[in-house]
Every structure is written in structure tokens, then in C-alpha cells.
Amino acid sequence: MNERDDRGRERERREDNNRERSRSRSRSPVQGALSSAPVDAHIGDGQPPLLPAGAAPPFPPPGAPMMMFPPPGGPMMMPVVPGGVPGMMMNMMMATPMTNPQDKVMRELFVGNTPQGTSEILLREFLNGAMRRTNLCGPTDTPVIQCRVSAKFAFIELSSVDVTNIALNLNGIPFMGMSLKVSRPSKYSGPHVAASSWQELTGQPLPSNIAPISDSKAAEDKVNRELFIGNTTPEMTEQMLKDFLGKAMEQVGLTTQPGNPINACRVSGKFAFIELRSKDETANALNLNNIPYMGAQLRVGRPSKYIGEQTPHGNWEDILAKYMSGELKLPSEGGAGAAAVVNNVTPTATPTKVVVLENMLTPEELVSDEDYNEIMEDTKDECSQFGVLTKLVIPRTGPGMGKIFLEYQSSTDCTKALNALQGRTFDGRKVVATYFIEDKFAKEDYS
Fold this sequence. Notes:
The protein has helices at 2-26, 29-36, 88-95, 101-106, 120-133, 161-167, 198-202, 216-224, 238-252, 279-285, 316-325, 338-342, 369-383, 411-421, 438-442, and strands at 108-112, 144-149, 153-158, 174-175, 178-179, 181-183, 226-230, 262-268, 271-276, 292-293, 296-297, 299-301, 354-358, 389-393, 404-408, 425-426, 429-430, 432-436. The chain is of the alpha+beta class. A hairpin with a 3-residue loop joins strand 2 and strand 3 (153-158).
């Protein structure tokens, strides 16, 4: 009996010890902390249980990036991207260059007639290799930095404006059985830059199995019938510009046949392009330059891709001045119209790179430094539209005082400036534009 009692007491003692050890394991530091903190559980209402107040989550929600939490008072760390390193996103953001949108337009070229299946990498590397082989760039340079390919054309972005001008010489290069057309995009509004074709550059004719760029003659004819319209405002629609400019040409006799001479107009931001029905009427429409419309003074000129001969012309103020003086009679009055009177301006002497403008300034306008600097700035802005202006000189004393000397990169640009400025009325005075001897200009002899 006593032996059974002893065994029972021993069994009870072991069970008591087991219960005590179980309670000790349940009171771990973590469990104790959780059990002692206030808990808002929401268990059973479809929501996940919340953590105790003030407790940080041990892991992020599913799909969220891992975060490196700072110590108390420490700086916030960058997120850790799976497979990456801390701060990688910031490095990627800092590595993205911030470019001027206008500068990008100057560094872009249109590549047409691309064959089907052309990839961006293939076209980019092909053009880079072609420019290296023909010394259009250095042997290790990468002039084409980006390429976007569409169905039958592409756009390439180059490393600089100068390199972009040089890359125009790629026009007509054979590629995968096609002849690529390399030119400025339609949104380009900068100066015209003369360039050769690929065949002229290399002296190699186009292979007999490759067709030349299609519709080249039709495209050239269209360029000869297009004009650039600058300084437009958002309120001006295509139909409004077409009607206004066409009516103005009819009224002053700049048309060669009845009806509106403007076939089409397309507006893009602060400028537009008009297409006329004939080359003669296109040349006549250049006399609309500076015509006022809806509070703005429109600039009318040849587009940058035009490479034909420069046409002598006047400006809208010249038409008004000749009409007021009686020199011009409108067709409605039995006259010949503006085209016969204004377009008789002809260049003088042999073309050079320097043109001199007279009868524009008075000695009084050159006295004040502020006035002089403003005149220099305005003249530079206005005359840069005709080409690359390399030097501008306005003598304030001595020989040539009051004259404006413009030196351009090429005689072609100089001729454009002369034709555009010759005969223009400035403060009631008629401007006289003539070529100037380059050697004299280089020696600063302005007599």
C-alpha cells in the first residue's frame, strides 16, 4: 500500500515539473513583450491582425521593396532594390541627363526609306561605322547616340549640333538594298546647312541593284513651293492662315492666276508651313514677310531644307510704302501689282561672305552704350535667321560709322541675307545692302 502511495506521489511530482517547464517555455522574452503590450487584434473580421502599438513590422507587405530602417535619430536609407544595391535608383536618376528640348531638335535627323525589319541597334551601328570610315568623325567616336525605328523611317539623335550638320552627308547611303534618305525632321526651324550626298562624298555611284530615293523630284518640287511662317500664335488655325495670306496675295497682286494660291497649311506651335500651287507664287509670297496679323508680325521665308537659288524680294512694309508713294498700283486699280514692282531687287557685284547694310542707323543712335548694345543684340538675332553669322561689326567712329557689317560662314548665307534685307524700310529709311570685300573686312578697313 505504502509502495503504491509512493509511486503515485512520484508520478504527481513529475507531472508538476512538466507543467512548470511548459509554463517557463511560454514565457520567452518575445512572447512576454507581446503579451504585456496592448493588442488591437480584429481577429475574425476578415482583417489581418495588427501589431502592438508602437511595434515596427518585421517584414514589408508582399511585393513591396525591402527597406533599410534607420536607427533612432539616424538618416533615412535608400530602398534596397531586389537584385540591386542601396541607392541604385538614385544613381539611375542622377545618370539621366537633363537636355534642352530645342537642343535635341537641333541634334535629330530623319532617316527615311528604311527597309522592313531594320533594328535600332543595327541602324545605329551602321551609321556610326559609315561616319568613322569616311572621316566624318573620329575613329573611336560614337556620333549617333540614339535611334528610334518606325515602319518605314527612323529618327536618330546625335552627340552635338556640329556632328548633326556633318551627318547630313549620309543622305543616299546604301543600306540593306535601299537608299536611305537623311534629312532634317519637319519640326526643325534652324538655319539651312549645305551638305553633299553620300555618292558625292565617296565618289561611288549608287549600286545598280538599289533604287534611288523615291519621288526625289516630286519632293524637290514641293520644297520649292513651301514657305516657313514664323511668330504665329496659338489662336491662329490652319484655315485662318491660309485664308488671310491667300487673300493678301490676291489683293496686292502677288498671284499669277485667280483663286487662293495656297494649297495647304500646317501649324506646329509657334510656326507653320504653307504650300503654294506654283514656284512663281511661292517666290512672290516672300514679300509678305513682316505682315501684321492678330497682333503679331509674321515672318515669311524659305524653309531650312530649301537649297535652291535665293529669290530677290521685299517685305510687307515695302509694299505699303510703294503703294502710299503711288509707285505701286493694285490690280483692282488697273495696276500690274506688287510682284512687278517689289521683286526687281537684284544683288550687286560678286557674292562674298560679307554684306554691308547702309542707311539704317544715325550717329545719335550710336552714342549711348545701352542703345548700341541693344542694336547689336537685335541685329544679331534678326540676321542669324539667314545662316551662320560669324561676325557682326557696327563702327561707332571713323570710316564705316553707322554701317552694319555682317560676315557669314558661306557666301550662300550672305546672299540670303542680302536678298532679304535689300530695300527693306527701317524707320522710314530704305536699307541698301551690298557685298563687301572679305580682305578689307579681315583688315578692319571699313571704308
